[in-house]
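ok, trying the design again with the full structure, not the truncated one.
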């Protein structure tokens, strides 16, 4: 089965709001074995919505629509569906009574305008909304089953799970897995798994670059969930074998979680000393639940005085080599490790830009220090030039050096 997802709303078309419903629905459909082949966003225009519905119903088996079920003049999805079906709107008295009960339960009187939410095209049926006042609509249009859901995410999710998913069960299953990678670019990662990415293969394998990480996406289809799961697991294992240490973690285990897992395994603690990243490493680490088990704390030593006072960096090192230097990065890491009594300490000092660079020390230059029981290492990097990217890549690179050291892969 193929599905098309339509999102309705001027706020989505104009970019004033982000459409998260389409991604959520596509994922839920995939788990049921239904492939979402197109996402389309349409503004609050009755004719445009009706045309989009007609076109989608001619091209797919299932059409899911979110938004435009409210009581205001710009909520036009039900009217557009009626137009596409060539039907009149009729009142569903059961849904009207439910809506009135919701308002009474909130201590409010339902406005006459809300009656429109209990109306559906003749020949369609309404779907209950236990979390709100906008019932959904189920209809047949052309070759497709059309389901119209509220735009409010938690209402949409509940209605899909209770009213739509049971109708789609039995279409097979799709299992999605993700392998997060770091250390090389997307083209290098793709080259390492080129055979697995051939078109038409099951599982399907693709790559996505986002937030400094490269993610290998695996989508396995099977007649049952277990079959799809087995196919996905075999491909994930092969991806990890081919990419080796470039593979950081699976699914929800991105860089901070992977580092945390290794620290917990080693029963080791960590502290951080940050300059140009301004606390971003600490923020990434503490985004993981339970990070207090291994993360002792950090120092944001942005100015030179803070580096000296808080991390015991000798003033002479800064005068001789500059704050952005191998020597200062090493001293920051060593001072941080001593101050917190940590097993490991990472430090970052660099030039995030857009100003402050020179021929010898360009924007994007970053030194990363890593201090442990066996000594201190410093790594020099030139990172992509925009301030936000330099800071994020520096933070992730610092964690990656720690990850490799914990794995015994970095001297």
């Amino acid at each position: 089965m193929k599905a098309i997802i339509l999102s309705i709303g001027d706020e989505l078309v104009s970019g004033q709001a982000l459409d998260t419903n389409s991604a959520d629905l596509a994922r839920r459909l995939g788990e049921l074995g239904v492939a979402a082949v197109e996402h389309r966003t349409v503004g609050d225009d009755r004719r445009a919505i009706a045309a989009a519905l007609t076109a989608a119903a001619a091209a797919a088996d299932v059409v899911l629509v979110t938004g435009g079920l409210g009581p205001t003049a710009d909520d036009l999805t039900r009217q557009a569906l009626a137009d596409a079906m060539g039907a009149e709107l009729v009142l569903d008295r059961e849904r009207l009574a439910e809506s009135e009960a919701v308002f009474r339960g909130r201590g409010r009187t339902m406005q006459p305008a809300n009656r429109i939410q209990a109306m559906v095209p003749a020949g369609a049926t309404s779907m209950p909304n236990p979390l709100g006042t906008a019932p959904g609509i189920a209809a047949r249009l052309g070759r497709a089953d059309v389901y119209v859901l509220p735009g409010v995410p938690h209402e949409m999710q509940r209605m899909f799970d209770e009213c739509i998913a049971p109708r789609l069960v039995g279409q097979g299953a799709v299992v999605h897995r993700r392998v997060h990678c770091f250390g090389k670019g997307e083209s290098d990662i793709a080259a390492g798994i080129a055979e697995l990415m051939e078109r038409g293969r099951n599982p399907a394998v693709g790559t996505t670059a986002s937030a400094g990480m490269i993610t290998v996406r695996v989508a396995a289809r099977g007649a049952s969930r277990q079959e799809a799961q087995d196919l996905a697991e075999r491909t994930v294992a092969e991806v990890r074998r081919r990419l080796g240490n470039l593979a950081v973690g699976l699914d929800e285990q991105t860089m901070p979680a992977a580092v945390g897992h290794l620290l917990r395994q080693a029963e080791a603690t960590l502290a951080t000393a940050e300059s140009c990243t301004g606390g971003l490493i600490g923020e990434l680490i503490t985004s993981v639940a339970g990070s207090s088990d291994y993360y002792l704390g950090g120092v944001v030593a942005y100015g030179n005085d803070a580096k000296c006072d808080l991390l015991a960096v000798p003033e002479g090192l800064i005068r001789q080599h500059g704050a952005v230097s191998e020597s200062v990065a090493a001293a920051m890491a060593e001072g941080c490790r001593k101050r917190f009594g940590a097993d490991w300490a990472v430090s970052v000092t660099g030039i995030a830009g857009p100003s402050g660079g020179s021929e010898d020390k360009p924007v994007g230059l970053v030194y990363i220090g890593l201090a442990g029981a066996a000594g201190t290492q410093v790594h020099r990097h030139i990172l992509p030039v925009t301030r936000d990217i330099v800071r994020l890549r520096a933070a992730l690179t610092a964690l990656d050096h720690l990850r490799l050291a914990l794995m015994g892969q970095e001297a």
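Keeping the full-length input from now on. The first strand starts at residue 2 and ends at 8.
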